## 1
Amino acid sequence: MTKRQKVLVLYLKFPSLEAEVISWATFDGTGKKLHMTGDSDEPPYPTGLDALLDGWRLFQASQAIPEHPGQEFRTSYLKHEFFFEKIEEGDF
Amino acid sequence: MTKLLSTEQMAEFANSGCLFFEGLIDEDINREFLNDIGHTNIDQVDNIQQYFQNIKSSSSIPRIPAGTPLKDAYPLNSPLEKIFKNEIVSGAINSLVGSKTLVDHQFLHLTFPSKYYEKANQRQMSQVNHQDSTIDPRTTFDIQLFYFPTAVTKEMGGTRYHPGTHLRIVNEMGIAKYQNIKGQKNIVCKAGTIGIFHNGLWHGAGVNFSDDIRYMFKVRLQPTEKQELLWDPEKKYQPLPNRALYWTDENKDQTINDILMRSYPWQEADTNRLDKINVVKFWRLLTGHKNMDVDYWLTRIENELY
């Protein structure tokens, strides 16, 4: 038996896990499923909290970084990023 | 003759970053284009590079040095010259980037079906989300005109795009980690459809699960003049007066301002407000009304008394 990591990245509507999921990505280290860009129109969970309730472990969250002076209205990447993992055991 | 865009269409472009003209180019020109590039059945194609080489060596699509005026770019009576001469296509181009626009580059995108990848024993993956070219903080904008010579069905994985992302300044594939974004769209269209994207719109090609090759011909066009009221040479547009906010009158008709203020499901609660502010700033440039506002977003924060 070996261990493999599955990673779920959720982008939320505001920086709290109770917020709605607006973007998502999944990377499956077990090799059971190949995820790719544009493969689903509906998020895997309605909110970040729902991912926790389903056993995903949060291991990284984006920091709140104040906007640079003079650049307050510049918009760019999605802001509220949360990385989760699940470890799966099996014969891979 | 050209048919300039309406103010509603311009507002749609300012807000969403894209416009579509479904089945605009007629069947004869679509067939002519496909014949010109030597369109064939996937079973006749051994490898992608060879197919590209054949198209490049035999089609009428010219090599166009970057910066060539669009009016000089395509051979007379070639399918592409006819497409750019179409009154709606030329009107949209003139409205957005002016009549003296330059060609930045062109490309014929091909997306091969699963059958090809199975035969070649290669993994078939979609293209990641990206914004074309590089970081582009200009207020001037380019357009990317897309032409679909065949119908694009859902299973053909037509271009995926994210309406309303065009004013977000990112670095090309820096957005590749967003596998899926709420509200994402895939182009499903009739043959002869023309799409126009603001150069900043986030997009990527989908996977082609059909049995046919999918084509998308793209040209990026650059303006040489200020993009102010190009669609409204008689300067008829006038900003609307302020309206009540939050405690609103639900009986009011929908206006240009409703198009400009449309939100998208992928926008964060906080940054969505900045997205609206940036659309108003963009609309100020497009209309030449330097102090106009919609729903007080800029008036409120420009009221600096010290």
Note: The two ends of chain A are 8 Å apart (CA to CA).
## 2
Amino acid sequence: MGFAFSLVVIVSPAILVFLWMLSLSLKNEIDNLSYPPVFIPDPPTLKNYVQVFTENSMGLYFWNSVVVSGCATLIALAVGVPAGYGIARLQAHRFTVLILIARMTPALSYLIPLFTVFQFLGLNNTLTALVITHLVITVPIVVYVMAGYFETLPKELEEAALIDGGSAWSLFRYVALPLARPGIVVGTILAFIFSWNNFVFGAVLAGRATRTLPAAVYNVLTFEQLAWGPLAAAAIVVTLPVLLLTILIQKEIVAGLTAGGVKA
Amino acid sequence: MPPGSNNRVALPHGRAATAVAVTVPRQSAFFARRRRNYRRFIIPAVVVVGAVIIFPWMFTIWMSAFDWKIGSVAHFVGFDNYVGLATNQRFLESIGHTFYFTALAVVFPLVLGTIAALIFHREFPLRGVLRAVFTMPMMATPVAIALVWTMMFHPQQGVLNYLLSLIGLPPSLWVYSPTLVIPSLVLVEVWHWTPLVMLIVLGGLAALPVEPYESARLDGATEWQLFRYITLPLIAPFLVVAAVIRTIDAVKAFDTIYVISQGGPGTASETINLYLYLQAFAFYNVGNASAVVVVFFAIILALALLLLHVRQRTKWVAV
């Protein structure tokens, strides 16, 4: 009994905050502001969701986030997967240490120089600037995860392929890469999630039409309306894709997270 | 997929553990001869890392020697920005706020995460599902979560004060009180990151040997003694890894504080990161902000090295 009780105590805060978020998003404003609070929406309404998509252009911001995080993740895979392979085979650990220090550095410290350069190039307020900045998040994650993964792959297969006359590139392309697919999945999802969750890059670099979802939820909704229902609905729209992706890589999450702190 | 290949990804190696201890080289002469070919694989990443990571580092250090606001002419001032920071009351207070926030945001998740790990280490029905639920906060978008907590903290309509009233406690001002704002922000941080500590410690518990427990039980040890004298020393390296990661993240905390309190009321919750943001993107005081970045990074590095030094002294290898 004591065990069941402590289990409930430790798990319930995690779930209750999400349920409260859901509850706020499904109630009308009168119920949201009433005291004592109304816990179960009665009747539940989707009005808040409709509002954030029609009046606050959540659709546009959602798309911006998909483009920025998607491009930043794809570029990171293109340069990071081969790099991870090279690092693993060369035992180039100085590069790994560099990546770890990069992850320790606060995100704002990249933002100030990049902002200044983008200002000079006239790139501020563009999605291009955002994609470039998000590489700060995605490239270290992909390199770190892939270097670790390729190190676990047995080299014997590649040695055998070499005897058959393969070049370094074909060893990578046809032997190592197919074997590394589980590592690539983890690296991709982690990079995408951290890019998606990033707030400050979008808040500083984006213009009104190029905001990413987290920046939009904060800027548009908090300043233009103080209504709780739409805010909670928007919060759900931002978080839901991340929670779904998390479920896919439950077990592998820790390794990616322990690289130089979690946040970029 | 080769057997065991997932272990490397699933185990909670610390940063230093991965960088240093995993380098057991099993380098055949074959691979040594082909080094030049493999270097080519790294070049694109080196170019990108150079452009978006190393260049900003260098540019920051360079800018920190200038008195420069965006839109005006930069003047070289040498170390003046740093000297100014050393006597800047507001900046010094922000360091204090950062350390206070960090201390709480490391200790509570460590204690609660260890308790949670001990719970999830047991076998019980629905264990997998409940563990997944418990770890959900960790990945949730910080801004979204911070907005929900902002509503929960509301002194009049907030659900937290209602819950306090249910157990007979007076309402609290939460983030609207200068003395409670940092502990309240820590509450959000604890909610967010306790699951990460749990997962790391759970990895440590999974690797525990069985024999010491059997012999200790034969000697009549209590559950508490088993934990205190066997489990705790054995999972200590994992706790240090968790402490290092938690420290780095807590020092860098930004989204939650910015969204919930904006460093207020007044400057009561203004951490280094918040001060930095204001200098850079509210006042466009780029030179001064760059100096803050350099000092800030030195603090993070010092804390990380300090904790890793503690780990060295424990003489266990966390791999």
Note: Chain A touches chain B through 119 residues (CB under 8 Å).
